[in-house]
Amino acid sequence: MGDNMFTTLKKYTTIWLTFAKYELLNQFSTKTSMIFFFIGKVIRFLSFFVILLLLKNNTKSIAGYTIDEALIFYLTFNYIDVITQMFLRGVYMLSGKVRSGEFDFFLIRPISPLFRSLAGSPDFNDVLLFIPLTIFSAWYITVALPNLTLQHVMLYLLLLANGLLISLAFHIFVLCVGIVSTEVDNTIMLYRDLSKMGQFPMEIYREPLRGIITFVIPVGIMMSVPAKVLLGLSSGSLIIVAIGIGVLVFCLSLLAWNQALKKYTSASS
């Protein structure tokens, strides 16, 4: 069984690297748009960061958190967002492939159509942002939290992975909508708008909105809980609940994917 898993992992790694190579060549063929797209991402990141730094000079806290702590929430949000955009950009292309009938070929090829739909178009603009973001985040966290323990770091990485799992599940749900309705743009934009609420600690929102975006639409579990763990503010029970919700949402997304495939009638029908 272990050999089969290793073989499968090796197979899909090779396939993804092939996708990545062709996508990189495609992006280099439109250098101007690639450069402007990357500049826009950098400006968006830096503008919000500058706003928080300006707040640091004029206020002491946000929803009970210091500005340094609030910045950790923002960095966590950006890290999950950048990784998601880097690997799951193929979601944005699905509606066109369903309408044109190209999705039919996804179903007959000997690789998972879900993998092909999610990871078929990696975004190298986000790779360029991911590297400096990782370096800066590691530096800032060590400076802002000098008493950070290895346990907190390990739990943070675990909850960060859980957040990525929830983000993956959201993207699978978007794919399901795309298969049924041939439309993903509005759905993916709705996801992005909801996820942006995780830029801030959940405490800035009032109930019942806070509970809804934490547990029903688990943006808080995805974005805020990892930062709270790093700050030492999450209990063991919350960590267990967060992981349970992450696994549950992911399993539900796979069930929804299977149901969506059953309703797919191909472009010729």
Question: How would you describe the overall organization of this protein?
Answer:
This protein has one domain. The chain is globular. It starts with a helix and ends in a 6-residue tail after the last helix. The protein is an all-alpha fold and 269 residues long. It is built from 12 helices and 2 strands, in the order H-H-E-E-H-H-H-H-H-H-H-H-H-H. It has helices at residues 2-28, 31-56, 67-87, 94-100, 103-108, 113-119, 124-144, 150-181, 185-195, 209-216, 219-230, 236-263; strands spanning 61-62, 65-66. Strand 1 and strand 2 form a beta hairpin. A two-stranded antiparallel ribbon has the order 1-2. Helix 3 runs antiparallel to helix 7 and helix 10 packs across helix 11 (219-230). The protein is 77% helix and 1% strand.
**What count of domains describes the coordinates?**
1
Instruction: Please give the largest β-sheet.
Output: 2 strands, antiparallel
With strands numbered from the N-terminus, the spatial order across the biggest sheet is 1-2
- What is the tally of beta strands? 2
In summary, what is this structure?
By secondary structure, the chain is mostly helical. 77% of the residues lie in helices and 1% in strands.
List keywords for this structure.
269 residues
Architecture blueprint of SSEs:
Elements: H1 2-28, H2 31-56, E1 61-62, E2 65-66, H3 67-87, H4 94-100, H5 103-108, H6 113-119, H7 124-144, H8 150-181, H9 185-195, H10 209-216, H11 219-230, H12 236-263
Antiparallel strand pairs: 1-2
